[in-house]
Amino acid sequence: xxxxxxxxxxxxxxxxxxxxxxxxxxxxxxxxxxxxxxxxxxxxxxxxxxxxxxxxxxxxxxxxxxxxxxxxxxxxxxxxxxxxxxxxxxxxx
Length: 93
Fold this sequence. Notes:
Layout: E1 2-4, E2 6-11, E3 16-24, H1 35-44, E4 63-65, E5 67-71, E6 77-79, E7 83-85, E8 89-91
Parallel strand pairs: 1-8
Antiparallel strand pairs: 2-3, 3-5, 4-7, 5-6
């Protein structure tokens, strides 16, 4: 899916329609102190193989993509609802 690089969108901080820059939101850094991370560290510590079977067959063929809209006037960032897309391309003018 092709998405325009800039578009007019309502900004809740400016209370009007302004130009927004569009980009794709990336996954954040994983928290090392999260419960799942601590559990995984404990399981994989020492000698041995991977504790869970590695999944090779997937039910889904796409990943969910989140678009990030940044207001050009006040720099307020709005994240879109995640959408399933095979390929996302942001068109720069």
